[in-house]
Amino acid sequence: MNHSIHIRIANKSDAVNIASYYLQLTDAAKKKFAPHDFSVDYLSKNILENNDYVSVIAEDESTKNILGYAVTQLWIFDYDIDRWSTYHIPIKNEDRKYCCFAPSVADKYHHTGIGSHLLQFTKSILKEKNIDFILLWGGVKCYNIPAVRFYLKNKFKLIGHFEYEGGNYDMLLSINEK
Ligand SMILES: CC(C)(COP(=O)(O)OP(=O)(O)OC[C@H]1O[C@@H](n2cnc3c(N)ncnc32)[C@H](O)[C@@H]1OP(=O)(O)O)[C@@H](O)C(=O)NCCC(=O)NCCS
Predict the structure, then answer these.
(1) What is the arithmetic mean of pLDDT over 139-157?
(2) What residues make up the domain containing 137?
């Protein structure tokens, strides 16, 4: 990875830059990555100052441009809990052991290691919070081969398949597994 890229937790003052980052993604990338609203107002009020989310950015140290953004929600939606129960994986939000993760990297920086660094940094924060498992926020589209390969390379396991606007895979990472 380029030495001038800094990975850090995002805060409220990053809302404008994160919104601009999202706007410049291609429509194809936005179809694959749309975990939440990316208006400055929504980011500020609902994500960046909310203890239920961990937002991590990759920032170009000289230009301060954001090159990647990964967001983790520290709870799981009820409809996902229902689907995961069909894999015999019971999730209880009150136990605070499962979270869901959604990464993205600016198109021209794909395959340069930024996504993996965002994940490793996020994992270190989740470990401090005693969270054990990461699943994918909304799954991953079956056609999104680079992302599926990215997750497998980073030790996620393929758990199941579901239909929502096409085929999707559910994948799971056990944070403490070596
Ligand atoms: C998925 C994503 C975050 C990966 O980030 P990245 O910075 O490109 O990934 P890395 O450089 O850390 O790559 C790690 C591994 O991912 C896989 N990978 C990444 N880009 C790939 C590509 N274009 N083709 C094939 N495999 C690819 C490879 O296995 C790679 O390991 P390698 O370098 O040994 O080949 C990035 O591709 C992205 O932003 N995609 C669009 C948004 C998206 O799909 N988000 C996920 C929604 S579920």
Answers:
(1) 98
(2) 5-174
Confidence at residue 178, expressed as pLDDT on a 0 to 100 scale: 75
Q: How many domains does the chain have?
A: 1
171 vs 168: CA distance, rounded Å: 10
Q: CATH no. for residue 155?
A: 3.40.630.30
Judge if pTM exceeds 0.90: yes
CA–centroid distance, residue 103 to ligand 1 (Å): 10
Residue 177: pLDDT band by 50, 70, 90 thresholds? Answer: confident
Choose among 108, 111, 122, 76: nearest CA to 95.
Answer: 76
Q: How far is the CA of 38 from the centre of ligand 1 (A)?
A: 22
Please give the pLDDT value at position 3. 59
- Residues at CB less than 6 angstroms from ligand 1: 29, 32-33, 102-105, 110-116, 136, 140, 144, 146-147, 149-150, 153
